[in-house]
Amino acid sequence: MLEEGLAISEYVTGYDHPDKYQNGEEGGNPQVTNGGEATRVVLTNSRHWKETNSTCMTFATHVNILVEDFVVYSKHCQTQHPYDYQMFCELINSKRRRLISPLPSICTHGETFYLAPLIDWHTVFHSSFS
Known about the structure:
Layout (H helix, E strand, L loop, with lengths): L1 H5 L4 E2 L19 E2 L2 E2 L3 E3 L4 E4 L11 H6 L1 H7 L7 H11 L4 E5 L17 H7 L3
Parallel strand pairs: 1-6
Antiparallel strand pairs: 2-3, 4-5, 5-6
Helix pairs in contact: 3-4
């Protein structure tokens, strides 16, 4: 699925972060208003993808993009906590990169407060042991 996304975007994440649905003034993503981010949805062979403004540090890209964007990663990953939001904003705005995430999400955050929306993760977790 990531390969399918990389055919249409420089960056792909499997995670639809719930902060994309929480207004910035309510503690969510600074670019979210009225419960969602401004985006464009595209369709590939098996999935809908939305352009998004950021993700965590779990993403896929091609090696040449890693090399080309290394300076930006280095700038935003100097501390124990990476500034991934700022990093992706710079990549998108300055380098004209595109980041997409699947609808619905195909993975989630390990922190239960940030579980991807609309997936019964409890059932997914328990079915993996069947």
